[in-house]
TrEMBL record:
Organism: Oryza meyeriana var. granulata
Domain of life: Eukaryota
Gene Ontology cellular-component terms listed: membrane
TM regions (residue ranges): 14-35, 73-94, 114-132, 176-199, 205-224, 236-255
Keyword list, A-Z: Membrane, Transmembrane, Transmembrane helix
Name of the protein in its database record: Uncharacterized protein
PANTHER family: OS01G0295600 PROTEIN, OS02G0130600 PROTEIN-RELATED
Lineage of origin: Eukaryota, Viridiplantae, Streptophyta, Embryophyta, Tracheophyta
Residues in the signal sequence: none
Length: 262
């Protein structure tokens, strides 16, 4: 109770109400946008779905590149390298400071990006297996070419998407995490490099190698991934990023009310 009273004394009622209204309004608007029925691309006007994560490409989009000349193995290598590099930087960050550093929004976003690349690497490994099998099968046919391989892959992927299963739901989760990372990584790096570094650089704050890596590796690997992958990014899905940020704010409020400091 003492901690709660201290918080209330430092904030006037109108400030508390304003902050609560902003967060509550953002959560409500995001949930409304997510749950509103939408029509998948190419479907009839009556074909509305509520599960907006289902709108878009099938599971093949999780491991195929938007560049026809880039094989799934290259995307797998890029994603696996991102997992190793980002995990190493996060471990370096925790060892340089302490585990309380994990309470910051940047580290939350960094961990979420690692989760994305882990899932993406799993899909890429699966894609390499599918691609290798079909490439071997098609090349055994007379006068085989890339069009036969492409058609064979499309038929297999369409059948897998129709069956659904855990892979399809994991693919939807991967898309959501990708879209959350897209917003949160840009937010953290813009604030850090455009506001904190130029205007708050002092004896109490100075750049070091860990900070530079934390606020550059995340964006670099995400830009490489965005360039190579074939995932769609409908702008209304930025609502997942809003929900992620609001969830962080709420958890921070609860932590401060409970007397936790870092």
């Amino acid at each position: 109770m003492a901690a709660l009273n201290d918080v209330l004394l430092r904030w006037s009622p109108w400030q508390l109400l304003l902050c609560f209204a902003i967060v509550a309004g953002s959560v409500a608007a995001s949930l409304w946008a997510i749950l509103s029925p939408r029509r998948p691309p190419g479907a009839s006007a009556s074909a509305l779905v509520v599960d907006v994560a289902a709108i878009g490409s099938g599971t093949s989009a999780m491991w195929r590149s938007s560049w026809s000349g880039v094989r799934p193995a290259w995307l797998l290598a890029s994603r696996a390298a991102a997992v190793v590099a980002l995990a190493g930087v996060l471990l370096w960050d925790a060892l340089t400071y302490d585990l309380t550093i994990m309470m910051y929004y940047t580290e939350w976003t960094f961990m979420l990006e690692i989760v994305y690349f882990v899932i993406a690497t799993m899909f890429s490994a699966y894609g390499c297996f599918i691609y290798s099998n079909h490439h071997h099968r098609v090349t055994m046919l007379p006068e085989s070419d890339e069009s036969l391989l492409s058609n064979s892959l499309m038929e297999t992927n369409h059948g897998a998407d129709q069956k659904g299963g855990a892979g399809l739901y994991l693919g939807r989760l991967m898309q959501i995490v990708y879209q959350v990372c897209g917003g949160s990584v840009v937010l953290t790096d813009v604030i850090f490099w455009a506001l904190i570094v130029p205007f708050m650089y002092s004896a109490h704050f100075s750049l070091n190698a860990v900070m530079v890596c934390i606020h550059s590796f995340n964006l670099v690997f995400l830009l490489i991934e965005t360039t190579l992958n074939s995932l769609e990014f409908p702008w209304f899905r930025m609502t997942y990023f809003v929900l992620w940020t609001c969830s962080y704010v709420i958890i921070q409020w609860v932590a401060h009310v409970c007397g936790l400091t870092w």
